[in-house]
Every structure is written in C-alpha cells, then in structure tokens.
C-alpha cells in the first residue's frame, strides 16, 4: 500500500501526544478531496503530532482493484498500517488514534473495537449504515439488483464488495470501543446525513466509561470544503488531540 508519513514538526514534552492514522473513505485517497488529509496532516504535525496517511488497495497509488475488496480487507489493511507504525522509533510508545472519514469512519470504528492498540478515535462525517449508504451513493439513490457489478466513477464494484457490507454494524462496534471519541459532522452534508452524529452519539453513550465529544459545523459539506469549515474542523480536531478542549 502507498503510505505517507509526517513526523512531528516540533517536539512536545508530553507522553500523551498521539500518532494519527488517517482512514480515507469510499473510492478516496490519502490526499483527500481538496487535499483534506494533506492539510490535516500538516496541521497536526506542526503541533507535534505524527501522522500516517495511506491508500487502501486499488485507491490512489496502491495496487489492486478497489471493487474486489471486502470490508474485512479494509480492516486488515488498516491493521497492517498500524503494525507498520509500531516499527517507527519516533512513533513508538505514543497513543494511537484512528481518524476515519465517511466510509473510513465505519472502518476505523470497527477496527478500533477489534484492536486494542487503538486508544482514541476521531470520526469525520462517518457512515453509519455501510451497505445502505454505499449502495445509495454508488447508484445515485436508485438501488441495485442482486449480483450486479456496478460501475461508479471509473471503479467496478463487484457483488462481493456490496455483500460484504450487509452485516457490518459500526454502531454496535462503537459500543465496544473503550477509548475517547471525537465526532465532527457538517450540517450541510448532502452525502452522509448530519443526523448520524446523534446516532453515533447514542451508541457511544451506552458505554460505561470514556468520553464522547461531538461538534457539528454550520454550512459544512461532506468534505468540509469551504475555508471556514475546514479551519473549524482542523482547530477542533487538533485541540481534541491534545485534550485542550472538551467539545459538547
């Protein structure tokens, strides 16, 4: 898999400064729409946080065919990156944070519930119902026939890709993750409803311990594309990474 690594630009004399692994969304890349993940990584690194960005198989510069992935493959690839992160001396003994956007939010949530190396979780506009959400997006809301290969934006999505999403329940996984969570969503998101922030909040709220912080940004779309929305997103997330602010 293609990977980009950002070492911290400054040294912070704290043991709890994390390293962040970014999980991109459906047919995305480690760059992000309008350089979302590049800008995020640069902002985090400038504050002293190490960052790892990567392309899932068949996306960006990673080899493979994206539409032949199954959801379990995304989890496996994410855990492979986590193992790689552990090998870097500058990242060792740092708390590990998974940051997932859109479908990457669902992947990050399920991975975090399975892998105790993940200590904290950041979700940006996360998918809550992978099968229903991705079918709706990939078919422009018209649904699909069972066993059909779907062509979407140059990708051929196999029947097994969709089938693998049917039983995936990130909301159930959310109840099993013991760490702190930040969720940020845009009110103007036309792809993944902002109401999912409340749905996730209810799931995380059923845990006995650990904090859940939520922030909705007015006029922000799915990729936080405006200058104002993106700046708010990065400020909120950077502050939370250092636990300088509790978002409500």
List keywords for this structure.
single chain, 248 residues, alpha/beta, Rossmann fold, seven-stranded mixed sheet, two-stranded antiparallel sheet, 19% strand, globular, disordered C terminus
Brief synopsis:
The protein has about 250 residues and is an alpha/beta fold. The protein contains eight helices and nine strands.
Q: How would you describe the overall organization of this protein?
A:
Helix 3 links the parallel strand 4 (96-101) and strand 5. The chain is of the alpha/beta class and 248 residues long. It has 8 helices and 9 strands. The radius of gyration is 17 Å and the shape is globular. It has one domain: Alpha/Beta hydrolase fold, catalytic domain (Rossmann fold, 3-Layer(aba) Sandwich), CATH 3.40.50.1820. It has helices spanning 36-46, 71-86, 103-114, 130-138, 159-163, 170-174, 196-204, 227-241; strands spanning 3-6, 19-23, 50-54, 96-101, 118-124, 150-152, 155-157, 180-186, 212-217. The protein starts with a strand and ends in a 7-residue tail after the last helix. The strands form 2 sheets. It has a 7-stranded mixed beta sheet with strand order 1-3-2-4-5-8-9, sandwiched between helices. GO terms for molecular function: carboxylic ester hydrolase activity. Residues 19-134 form the Serine aminopeptidase S33 domain.
Question: How is the topology of this model organized?
Answer:
Blueprint: E1 3-6, E2 19-23, H1 36-46, E3 50-54, H2 71-86, E4 96-101, H3 103-114, E5 118-124, H4 130-138, E6 150-152, E7 155-157, H5 159-163, H6 170-174, E8 180-186, H7 196-204, E9 212-217, H8 227-241
Domain Serine aminopeptidase S33: 19-134
GO molecular function: carboxylic ester hydrolase activity
Organism: Geobacillus subterraneus
């Amino acid at each position: 898999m293609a990977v980009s690594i950002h070492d911290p630009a400054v040294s912070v004399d704290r043991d709890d400064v994390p390293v962040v692994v970014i999980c991109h969304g459906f047919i995305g890349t480690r760059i992000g729409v309008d350089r979302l993940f590049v800008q995020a990584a640069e902002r985090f690194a400038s504050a002293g946080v190490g960052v790892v960005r990567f392309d899932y198989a068949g996306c960006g510069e990673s080899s493979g065919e994206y539409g032949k992935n199954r959801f379990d493959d995304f989890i496996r690839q994410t855990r492979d990156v986590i193992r790689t992160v552990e090998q870097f001396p500058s990242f060792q003994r740092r708390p590990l944070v998974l940051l997932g956007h859109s479908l990457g939010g669902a992947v990050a949530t399920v991975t975090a519930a399975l892998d105790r190396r993940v200590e904290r979780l950041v979700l940006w506009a996360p998918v809550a119902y992978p099968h229903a959400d991705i079918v709706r997006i990939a078919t422009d809301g018209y649904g699909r026939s069972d066993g059909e290969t779907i062509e979407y934006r140059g990708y051929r999505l196999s029947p097994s890709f969709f089938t693998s999403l049917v039983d995936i329940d990130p909301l159930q996984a959310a109840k099993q993750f013991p760490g702190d969570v930040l969720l940020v969503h845009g009110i103007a998101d036309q792809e993944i409803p902002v109401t999912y922030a409340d749905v996730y909040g209810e799931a995380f709220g059923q845990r006995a311990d650990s904090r859940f912080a939520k922030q909705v940004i007015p006029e922000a779309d799915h990729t936080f594309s405006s200058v104002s929305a993106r700046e708010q997103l990065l400020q909120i997330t950077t502050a939370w990474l250092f636990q300088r602010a509790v978002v409500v």
